[in-house]
Request: fold
Amino acid sequence: MTATFECKGLSKNFGSTQALEDVSFSIAPGRVVGLLGPNGSGKTTLIKLANGLLTPSEGELLICGGKPGEESKAAVSYLPDKTCMPLWMNPKQLMDFFQDFYQDFDRQRAEDMLRRLGLDEKQRLRQMSKGTREKVQLIMVMSRKAKLYLLDEPIGGVDPATRDYILDTIIRNYDPEASVVISTHLISDVEKILDEVLFINRGRIMLQASVDDIRQQYGKSVDEYFREVFKC
Amino acid sequence: MDWTFNNDMPIYSQLVDKIKLSIVSGQLPPGEKLNTVRELAAEARVNPNTMQRAFQELEREGLVFSQRSSGRYVTEDMEVIMEAKEAMAQKYIRDFMDSMEKLGYTGEEIISLVRGGKEEDKK
Reply:
C-alpha cells in the first residue's frame, strides 16, 4: 500500500532559521493522525510543504507516492490555519465554487452539514462571526472525497458542542482509503478519534506512536503525556 | 451504553470491557446481531480502527463471532459468557479487596462489613 503522506529526510530553512530538520515519517491509508507540538514547532510549515505552498530545502515529501503538484492538489483537501474564503461570497456561492473546482466535492454532504449546524446559505461570510466562518470552511473541506485531509487547527476557534459535531463528522465520513492529519494542541478533544500521533518539537519528529500504545506504556492519556514531555 | 473513558488505560481495552459488560449482563443477549464497527465507532466517538481492534479482541475471547456475509453476533455459547462474567466478578472483587486493605481492614472484617451492609439493604 502506498503511503498517503510520506517524508524522507525533509528539511526547511527560512534564512538562518531551521523550521524543519531531517523529518521522516509515513502515514498509511485509513489512518487518522494527530500532528501535535508546541507553538512554533513546525506543524504549519510541514502542512504547507505538503500542499506545495513551500518547497523543501532538503529531502523529499510524497503525497500518494508523488511530489506535491497538480495531481496531489486534487487528492488533498486542505484546511489552512487562517480562513481564506472570499468574504463577499455566501455558502451557496462557495459551494458552486468548490463544485467547479474540485471533482470530488459532494454538494449534498455540504448542504446537510450546513443545515445541521443551522447555517444560512444566503448569509455573506463578511456578516458571519469568526467561529462561524471557520465552520463553513471546515464543512467545505470535509465535503470533498479526498485521499488526504490536512487540517491545520480545525477546532481551535469553535465552541465545544460544535467541536464534538466536527469530530463526529470526521469519523462518520471516514473512508478506509483516506488519511486525516489533524494539527492541534487541543489534544484531549481529539485523542479518541486518532489512530496515532506525531510529536513534533523544534522542527524534529520526536515520536510516532499509536494512541493506545502510549496509554498502555505510560498509563496516561496522550494529553497528559504531552504535558509531561513538553513541560515548560 | 456509557461511552466515557478513563485516561490511564488504552481506549480499545476500555471498549472491550464496556461491550463485555453489556454481554454478560444480558443487555446484549446471546445471538444478538451487533451494529457495524462504523456505527458503533460513531456512537462512541472513537476511531473506527480502535473499535475494530476491540472486536478482534472480543472475537479472540469467543464472546462475539462474525459471519462473513451478514455481520457480527454475540455468541450463543452460555459457557463462554458465564466464564467471562466470573472473570469480571473476580476482577471487581480483587479491586475491592485492594481498596479495603488500603483502608486497613483485614479479610474477616471486610466480610462482616459486607454482611452488615447487606442486612442494612434488606431493611
Summary: Chain B touches chain A through 18 residues (CB under 8 Å). Residues 79-122 of chain B form one domain. The helical segments of chain B are 11-24, 37-44, 48-60, 78-102, 107-122.
